[in-house]
């Protein structure tokens, strides 16, 4: 999936989001959304506004965009107030997740012998 620059720091050759691969859970041991520490129950789910890589809550970014993401919004904000209006992730989160699931191909069960 190709991510627009407003919602991803950059993409790799295969179109995946580089900053999403960099994002870590708050303990710093595991990738975001794959935490195994005592915070796993809250770290492995994200709802509402998210950071650009969509793997962490808005304002709690841990990828290379943390310096630009983890501060209050100045200027015009999206409806939730947590992201700039040009890169809103609050109302889009469910629609984007549904779209991604709709274009993913399940190669594990498509062909049965």
TrEMBL record:
| Residues of the DUF7871 domain | 5-109
Per the record, the domain of life is Eukaryota
Query: What Pfam family is a match for this entry?
Result: DUF7871
* Name of the protein in its database record: DUF7871 domain-containing protein
């Amino acid at each position: 999936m190709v991510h627009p620059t407003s919602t991803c720091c950059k993409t790799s050759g295969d179109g995946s989001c580089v900053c999403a691969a960099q994002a870590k859970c708050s303990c710093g041991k595991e990738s975001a959304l794959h935490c195994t520490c005592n915070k796993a129950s809250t770290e492995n789910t994200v709802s509402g506004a998210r950071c650009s890589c969509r793997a962490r809550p808005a304002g709690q970014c841990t990828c290379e965009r943390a310096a630009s993401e983890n501060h209050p919004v100045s200027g015009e904000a999206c409806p939730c107030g947590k992201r700039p209006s040009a890169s809103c992730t609050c109302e889009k989160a469910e629609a984007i997740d549904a779209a991604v699931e709709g274009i993913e191909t399940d190669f594990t069960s498509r062909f049965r012998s």
